[in-house]
């Protein structure tokens, strides 16, 4: 792999950029692999990368039915933060945040991680109590999170309307300064490039249609649209389609797949310095480096695989955005899309062994798993390589729905981003 | 936005009047305090999350307030049939009677 650097850039500039190589190679699949990862989103590609880098397993294929990052990796609003309530969540999201901080260097690929601060608006007494509880829990656990007065919130984000007569008045905010955003596609591409460089096969346009099992029930490989491919171990990381894939092995998972939408505006000059979320009126917003306002909406109430959502959902969000930031009322929206998110009953992820030997699952990241990409991938690699979870992910078992040891982030935050 | 037929009101109304209420025909075990943890997990948490034709419950919450069942294609989001609660799992319109489902519940 050719290293990216300022010298490489200068050299290519002098020869009309004719020497750049493809980011990753797309080889013909082998007849079998040590590990097959199903799903070429950030989580799956990252798991392959860390398996190769940290566990010395390189005979790996990542099998993706569409194109890399065509799932939720390329559809999300890229909010990154780690100020969740429960220790199980803080463990994995903080592990992830620490990896984000060095990810561009590690991958030699600019993922444009931008710790510009994530500010969550509080609108009422309940919000205030809940946010302060989060802040205290986070700080006791060594994670930054601070309380701002409305005036401090306005100073941090000037377009915010904090007037007392606002439709959705603000009585404070919680700010995680290390939170921020990253470039979604770059995360998929960066992991793919670095994994490919270590020998991982990246196989796109190949749908897994079945999981084959051996005499003692263990997995032996996958049926795909390009034929059977053998595998000693399989890791499922298929986001909204995780339950569909798991059913191929006869494993039931407690997931509901819901459409979640986002939209972007016409590009504007830099005006919005941070990320703002409001769980109560359900809106979240940031500005991309291209200048578009990136706005996240809510999920549809019903389960669906349509990759689209109801117009009333985004209208509702835009109502809220226009009230919080009156300055944006005349901005035109350019594009809207939906992704299918895999939601668990407690709104925490599942990263777990399964009743099927050598089948591992990483799912349930729902509406908020982009931020978890490096951490989840890193710990999923550990789970696949060792056959048992890393201590930081030990609570995310599938078994918790039997034992009752839920991680109830659903109650802790109305939305999960 | 979905257009949903309420079998009680006999009208097609906008989704805003309705609340989705999950998979249909899941019966609460009669012996809920006696069942095992596995059985409870299966009843309470595990869902088919079907890609394709799904049987589900809806509630006409801002209309007559009643629960009913519907058949919907979760890929196209098209409704194929709405039917009253208490009726057994209905076959997909225009198809052969549906194969007996694995677990048939009572009124869900
Ligand atoms: C609109 C929207 C906004 C969001 N905003 C945020 C946010 O601000 N912050 C945040 O942290 N998270 C956010 N999320 C959630 C986040 O995007 C997901 O949790 C995360 O991307 C899941 O990562 P992934 O890489 O596993 O998923 P994906 O990128 O979806 O990867 C799964 C892949 O599996 C493939 N696949 C499925 N079935 C098969 C099969 N049978 N064979 C082969 N391949 C298969 C799919 O094609 C897909 O590419 C948002 C999601 C959406 C939709
Ligand atoms: Zn009705």
Summed up:
The complex is a heterodimer of chains A (417) and B (108). Helices cover 29% and strands 24% of the residues of chain A. Chain A contains eleven helices and 16 strands.
How would you explain this protein's 3D organization?
The complex is a heterodimer of chains A (417) and B (108). In chain A, the strands form 2 sheets. In chain A, strands 1, 2, 6, 7, 8, 9, 15 and 16 form an 8-stranded mixed beta sheet that branches. In chain A, strands 4-5-3-11-12-13-10-14 form an 8-stranded mixed beta sheet. Chain A is built from 11 helices and 16 strands. Chain A is globular, with a radius of gyration of 21 Å. Chain A is α/β, with parallel strands linked by helices and 417 residues long. The model of chain A has no long low-confidence stretch (mean pLDDT 96). Chain B has a domain of 74 residues: Folate-binding superfamily (Folate-binding fold). Chain B is built from 1 helix and 6 strands, in the order E-E-E-H-E-E-E. In chain B, a hairpin with a 7-residue loop joins strand 4 and strand 5. Chain B has 108 residues and is mainly beta. Chains A and B meet through helix 10 of A and strand 3 and helix 1 of B. Flavin-adenine dinucleotide (FAD) binds next to helix 2, strand 10 and strand 14 of chain A. Chain A: One of its GO terms (molecular function) is sarcosine oxidase activity. Chain A: It catalyses: sarcosine + (6S)-5,6,7,8-tetrahydrofolate + O2 = (6R)-5,10-methylene-5,6,7,8-tetrahydrofolate + glycine + H2O2; sarcosine + O2 + H2O = formaldehyde + glycine + H2O2. Chain A: Keywords: Cytoplasm, FAD, Flavoprotein, FMN, Nucleotide-binding, Oxidoreductase. Chain A: Its cofactor is FAD; FMN. Chain A: InterPro entries: FAD-dep_OxRdtase, FAD/NAD-bd_sf, Rhodanese-like_dom, SoxB.
């Amino acid at each position: 792999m050719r290293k990216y650097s300022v010298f490489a850039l200068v050299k290519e500039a002098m020869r009309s950029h004719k020497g750049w190589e493809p980011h990753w190679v797309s080889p013909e699949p082998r007849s079998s692999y040590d590990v097959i990862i199903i799903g070429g989103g950030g989580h799956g590609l990252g798991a392959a990368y860390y398996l190769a880098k940290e566990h010395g397993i390189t005979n790996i294929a990542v099998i993706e039915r569409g194109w890399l990052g065509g799932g939720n990796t390329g559809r999300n609003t890229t909010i990154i933060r780690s100020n969740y309530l429960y220790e199980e969540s803080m463990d994995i999201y903080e592990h992830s945040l620490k990896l984000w901080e060095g990810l561009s260097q590690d991958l030699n690929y600019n993922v444009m991680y931008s710790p510009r601060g994530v500010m969550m608006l509080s609108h009422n007494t309940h919000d205030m109590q809940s946010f302060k509880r989060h802040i205290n829990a986070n700080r006791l656990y060594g994670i930054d999170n601070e309380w701002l007065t409305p005036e401090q919130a306005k100073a941090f984000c000037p377009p915010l309307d904090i007037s007392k007569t606002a439709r959705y008045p603000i009585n404070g905010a919680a700010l995680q300064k290390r939170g921020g955003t990253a470039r979604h596609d770059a995360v998929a591409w960066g992991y793919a490039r670095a994994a490919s460089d270590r020998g991982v096969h990246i196989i796109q346009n190949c749908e897994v249609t079945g999981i084959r099992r051996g005499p003692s029930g263990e997995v032996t490989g996958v049926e795909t649209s390009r034929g059977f491919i053998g595998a000693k171990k399989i890791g499922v990381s298929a986001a909204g389609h995780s339950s569909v894939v798991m059913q191929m092995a006869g494993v039931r998972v407690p997931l509901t797949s819901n459409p979640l939408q986002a939209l972007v505006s016409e590009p504007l000059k830099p005006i919005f310095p941070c990320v703002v979320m409001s769980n109560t009126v359900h809106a979240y917003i940031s500005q991309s480096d291209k200048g578009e306002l990136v706005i996240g909406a809510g999920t549809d109430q019903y389960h669906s695989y349509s990759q689209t959502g109801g117009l009333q959902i985004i209208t509702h969000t835009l109502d809220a955005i226009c009230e919080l930031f009156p300055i944006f009322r005349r901005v035109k929206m350019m594009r809207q899309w939906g992704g299918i998110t895999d939601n668990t009953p407690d709104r925490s992820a599942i990263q777990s062994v399964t009743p099927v030997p050598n089948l591992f699952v990483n799912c349930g990241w729902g509406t908020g798993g982009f931020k978890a990409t490096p951490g989840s991938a890193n710990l999923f690699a550990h789970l696949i390589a060792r056959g048992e979870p890393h201590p930081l992910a030990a609570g995310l078992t599938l078994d918790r729905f039997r034992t009752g040891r839920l991680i109830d982030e659903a109650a802790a935050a109305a939305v999960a981003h | 936005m979905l257009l949903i037929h309420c079998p009680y009101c006999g009208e097609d109304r906008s989704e805003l009047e309705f609340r989705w209420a999950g998979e249909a025909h899941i019966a609460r075990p009669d012996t809920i305090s006696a069942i095992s943890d596995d059985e409870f997990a299966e009843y309470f948490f595990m869902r088919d999350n079907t890609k394709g034709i799904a049987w589900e419950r809806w509630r006409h919450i801002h209309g007559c307030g009643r629960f009913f069942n519907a058949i919907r294609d979760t890929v196209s989001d098209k409704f194929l049939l709405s039917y009253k609660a208490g009726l057994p799992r209905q076959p997909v319109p225009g198809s052969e009677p549906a194969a007996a489902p694995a677990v048939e519940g009572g009124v869900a």
